[in-house]
Each structure stands twice: as structure tokens, then as C-alpha cells.
Amino acid sequence: MKEQRVAVLGPGSWGTALSQVLNDNGHKVIIWGHTEDQIQEINEQHSNKRYFEEVILDEKIQATTDLAEALKDTDAILFVVPTKATRIVAKQVAEVLDHKVRIMHASKGLEQGTHERLSTILEEELPAELRSEIVVVSGPSHAEETIRRDITLISAASKNEADAKYAQELFSNDYFRLYTNTDVVGVETAGALKNIIAVGAGALHGLGFGDNAKAAIITRGLAEITRLGVAMGAEPLTYIGLSGVGDLIVTGTSVHSRNWRAGDALGRGQKLEEIEQNMGMIIEGVSTTKAAYELGLSLGIDMPITETIYKCLYEAAEPREAILNLMRRESRPENEF
Ligand SMILES: NC(=O)C1=CN([C@@H]2O[C@H](COP(=O)(O)OP(=O)(O)OC[C@H]3O[C@@H](n4cnc5c(N)ncnc54)[C@H](OP(=O)(O)O)[C@@H]3O)[C@@H](O)[C@H]2O)C=CC1
Ligand SMILES: O=C(CO)COP(=O)(O)O
Q: What CATH number corresponds to the domain at position 48?
């Protein structure tokens, strides 16, 4: 593939790690962000110490606060801002974009209120004549490991296979491997919904439960988010792929995961406000829990784990008591869908 110019929107931990992957592959990366001193740090010190204390980025990676500059002559745009900022940033892009580009996103969540998936938001906000089909880049991938060039395998999903293949070729190298997928709903909902279960897995750990409980929440959580995903139009098989079970393992078992750490703190008795303040980074599972809980109610999907986490996060339910209530639910067959 010849050198591509890629605008990475969002200089957070994942945007920075993906920028390094693209730069390693010989592409021209320009990161856009809205915090002046962070952008200056990337340009002058070649670091982003807020996320990666030790990492020095290649000097070729440039950053700007000027969106028009970031988008000038770009071949592709990668959205990697938190879910709550995606529509806002897409509207800003629509105002300045003046040529047709490939559009990808690597964020994981559902919009509050509308419950929309992020690719739907991008389709709504970006004129069809100025973009490809949206590509969703999602899978088990801690930024902390990708930035060290650890082996990472994820999915690239698009309605148009050629667009998914473009992302596959753009990102793939010896440590970063992408698989194409045409199940956009599946890949996108799996990536968003696993964060709820990661919060729950962390909470069980914080409460002092062990590996049996961890395995239980991951497998029963998978059953539950698959039910919701399928009701939203996903293919069930996607949920046992990288973006489903793969991402559940990586976030449901690791201290790298902000969602897991938030759950752990919750289990140890901290309040949500305090947890969010201490994290200083986005904990997508908090707002996704609310969106999924509301969606489950409106679609008539039984989501007992999500409901329990919702009650702990939003209704001040006591986590140990809430878990016991889950255990006391009416007995049922395992494979009831
Ligand atoms: N970190 C990871 O390992 C992975 C993250 N993801 C997903 O990627 C997405 C981003 O996560 P991550 O990079 O970790 O998040 P971070 O919290 O590390 O960073 C988010 C970045 O977005 C910026 N931002 C927020 N709002 C706006 C806005 N309105 N306009 C412009 N920039 C904005 C923030 O700037 P500031 O704080 O200065 O306002 C910050 O630089 C999430 O959906 C996450 O689930 C997916 C896979 C892995
Ligand atoms: O999505 C992720 C890993 O695949 C990152 O998870 P956290 O947002 O919980 O850190």
C-alpha cells in the first residue's frame, strides 16, 4: 500500500497507540486534539506523558489543534474520541471536510439518549458523498500493550468489504493483525457492551470473589450481551470472535482496563463520582451500562447483570447485596436465549 495520510482525531491513549501503529507502517499521521499543551508536547517532546510516562514517539508523528489542517489532503480519518464526543467532533469534521475520505472509528460505546451505535452517528453527520462506508476497528487491545508493540489482533468491520480491507492493510504489520468482518452491528455492539461486563468483573474482584466468579460473569455476561446484540441485528457468531469473547477476556481480567479498575473500586466501596475523578480517562462502561439497560427494557431483553451494575452505578445499590440478589434469581436452563 502506498503511503496514506491519516488524521487521527483524539490524542488519548488509544489514539496515540494507533498513531504509532500507522507511523510504523510508513503512513503520515497527524493527530488532532483540543488541548493545546498536549498537542504542543506531542510536537515538541514527542511524548504524551498523561498516558504513557516512558514512551517517546517518532518525530514524524505530528499533532495539531486545527481541524482543517489535520484534514487537509487526508486519505483517511480515524475517530477515536470518547463516545460522548463522537457526534460533536463529526459535526466539526462535516463543516471543514472538502474532499472524499475513508472513515474509520475505534471507539466503544452507545450514545446516551438515542442509544445509537457510533457508525450510525458518523453516517448521520458526515455527508455520504464525502466518505466511504464506515469501518469499525475493534477488538482486544489495551493501548498500554499496543504502544509497546505487543502482539494485538482485532477486527475491521464495514458494510463494504473493500473498505474493511483498506483498514486491514493500513494497520496490519508484524505485531498488529486485523481480520475483516461485514457484521458491523456485531463488532460494534460487542466492543461497546463488553465494557459493562468488565465493570462487573472488576466489582467482583473488589468484593474479594475469586476465579470461579470471574469465569461466571464473563460467560453469563457474554450470553447476556449476545442476547441484546442479536436483538439489535448482530450475528451471534461475532460474539465469540475477537470483538466479543476476545475483548471480554482482555477487559474482564486485566488491571489495564479502566472499566475493570472502575468496577474494582466500586466493589471496594468507592462512589462513582470519585472513581471517575481518579481515573482521569474515559470509563465507557459507565454510560454504556445506562444505554444498554434502557435498550434491554425497550427491546424486552433479560439483562440481569447489566441491571445489577446499573443499580450499583446509578441507584446507589450496595454491590455485595446486589450480587447476592443475582445469585438468588429463579433457577433456569443455561441455554435459554
Ligand atoms: N485505551 C484503550 O486501550 C482503548 C480504548 N478504546 C476506545 O477508544 C476511545 C477513546 O479512548 P481513550 O483513547 O482510551 O480515551 P482517553 O480518555 O485516553 O482520551 C480521550 C481523548 O479524547 C479527547 N477528547 C474528549 N472530548 C473531546 C472533544 N469533544 N473534542 C476533541 N477531543 C476530545 C480527550 O481530550 P481531553 O481529555 O484533553 O479533553 C482525550 O485526549 C474510547 O471509546 C475507548 O473505549 C478502544 C480500544 C482500546
Ligand atoms: O477496550 C479496551 C481493550 O480492548 C480498553 O478497555 P478499557 O477502556 O476498559 O481500558
A: 3.40.50.720
**Domain containing 314: what range?**
187-327
What pLDDT digit, counting tens, does each position of 65-83 carry? 999 999 999 999 999 999 9
Residue 198 · residue 252 · CB < 8 Å: yes
| Pocket (CB within 6 angstroms of ligand 1) | 10-15, 33-35, 38, 51, 80-83, 85, 88-89, 106-109, 141-143, 281-282, 284
Q: What is the pLDDT of residues 128-143, one digit of tens each?
A: 999 999 999 999 999 9
CA 305 to chain centre: 20
* Number of structural domains the chain divides into: 2
Q: What is the ipTM of this complex?
A: 0.99
Identify whether residues 198 and 235 lie together within a single domain. yes
Of the residues 150, 182, 214, the one at which a domain ends: 182
Q: Which three cell numbers stand for residue 251?
A: 477487559
* Per-residue cell: 181: 468482518
**189 closest CA partner among 282, 113, 116:** 116
